[in-house]
Write a structure and sequence with these properties.
Helices cover about 85% and strands about 0% of the residues. By secondary structure, the chain is an all-alpha fold.
């Protein structure tokens, strides 16, 4: 029963031809298929290795750039704080200068106003003295009934002025 199955039976001619075909196929595959396939595998392995090296280099460069950016950001923050401090200092100085200028202007105007008031007061007092002197002369000429000359006018004016008390006006 075992001998009846053709797959199990040993046929020496078929075995030789199978081995010969196998060796020819092996030679053909090794000559034209395995070599190019192995070269492609080796090339691909080399490309992957280079890509990994480049990726590692890029990662290292990215880390370095990130660190530089962090340093630059820290520097920029410090610079910004310095600029803000300087701007505040300048603003305070300008505010103080404007305040001093405003105070000086106010003092100058106040002094000018005082001088104007003093000048106006002196002018008004002089005008009052002149009017009092003139009224005194008119009253004296009516009381005495005679016309006075310049020396009499001068004497009466001086007496009237010395008798007047202008402290009320001042």
């Amino acid at each position: 029963m075992l001998a009846a199955n053709p797959l199990i039976s040993v046929t020496p001619g078929l075995m030789i031809w199978t081995i010969v075909c196998f060796l020819i196929t092996l030679y053909v595959l090794q000559r034209w298929a395995f070599g190019p396939i192995q070269r492609m595998i080796d090339e691909r392995r080399e490309r992957i290795r280079r890509s990994l090296e480049e990726a590692e280099e890029a990662r290292a460069e990215a880390r370095q750039i990130l660190e530089e950016h962090r340093k630059l950001i820290g520097q920029a923050r410090g610079d910004a704080e310095q600029i803000l401090a300087e701007a505040r200092r300048v603003a305070d100085a300008q505010r103080e200068r404007v305040k001093q200028e405003t105070e000086a202007d106010r003092q100058r105007r106040l002094e000018e106003t005082r001088r104007q008031i003093e000048a106006e007061t002196q002018r008004a007092l002089g005008q009052i003295r002149a009017e009092v002197a003139e009224l005194t002369l008119v009253a004296a000429s009516k009381v005495t009934g005679k016309v006075l000359d310049d020396s009499d006018h001068r004497r009466l004016i001086d007496e009237a002025i010395s008798e007047l008390d202008f402290s009320v006006l001042e």
